[in-house]
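STRUCTURE:
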């Protein structure tokens, strides 16, 4: 494999296994994993903790000057630090999950974060997961992948993730939520979720994370 450290992007809808894949891929390659969704979640956490309405863009934007997000890495795994506090767990709570789509659809929020994401990933040696990683953040990335899976598989994965945190959501409700999030992320004006034209598409409905990572590494080596 090339000695130069690459920029690898993984885009795809909610529950497509991006974060699991990106984490494992980064570990196997000795790269760091840049979870761009965590940064949108950190802003959403700040918005909610200040009782700002996430659906009023001007109010959300007015908070940006007060927001400092730092990422640290322990064994290549990202910790998300919001104004000096480690919020890596808090940003996964259900309130944040329910409001992050609204916050991430605001143009100024995206500009604020994309600039930071570009500065982080530029030296290479990053696996970057998001919705716009291969289209907006790094349109010239060395390798681009678009992960997808059928909606049932994605809903079951999300259900399991939540179950691990003692949150029980019925399957139908989960599938509806995933569908709603897809529709919102694909339909928004700012950086909608689209497959980068030059990305390799991987449908992982019937793959284990390990199989998928092996497959991606083979594709990178080719
Ligand atoms: O991957 P995730 O579920 O943590 O992402 C949270 C939200 O942030 C999701 O609604 C889509 C949005 N997002 C985005 O708009 N752009 C990114 N690069 C990453 C996430």
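SEQUENCE:
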């Amino acid at each position: 494999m090339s000695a130069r450290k690459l920029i690898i992007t993984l885009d795809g809808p909610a529950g497509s296994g991006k974060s699991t894949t990106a984490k494992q891929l980064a570990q196997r390659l000795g790269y760091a994993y840049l979870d761009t969704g965590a940064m949108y979640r950190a802003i959403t956490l700040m918005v909610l903790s200040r009782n700002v309405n996430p659906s009023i863009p001007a109010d959300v934007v007015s908070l940006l000057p007060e927001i400092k997000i730092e990422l640290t890495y322990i064994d290549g795994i990202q910790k998300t630090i919001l104004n000096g506090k480690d919020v890596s767990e808090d940003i996964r709570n259900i309130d944040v999950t329910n409001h992050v789509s609204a916050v991430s659809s605001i143009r100024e929020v995206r500009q604020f974060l994309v600039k930071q994401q570009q500065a982080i990933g530029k030296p290479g040696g990053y696996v970057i997961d998001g919705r716009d990683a291969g289209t907006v953040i790094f349109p010239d990335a060395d390798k681009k992948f678009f992960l997808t899976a059928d909606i049932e598989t994605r809903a079951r994965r999300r259900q399991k993730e939540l179950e691990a945190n003692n949150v029980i959501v019925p399957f139908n409700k989960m599938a509806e939520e995933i569908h709603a999030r897809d529709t919102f992320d694909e339909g928004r004006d700012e950086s909608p979720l689209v497959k980068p034209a030059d990305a390799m598409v991987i449908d992982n409905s019937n793959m284990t994370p390990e199989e998928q990572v092996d497959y991606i590494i083979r594709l990178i080596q080719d």
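REMARK: The pocket of 2'-deoxycytidine-5'-monophosphate is lined by residues 14, 36-37, 40-41, 100-101, 104, 130-132, 181, 185 (CB under 6 Å).
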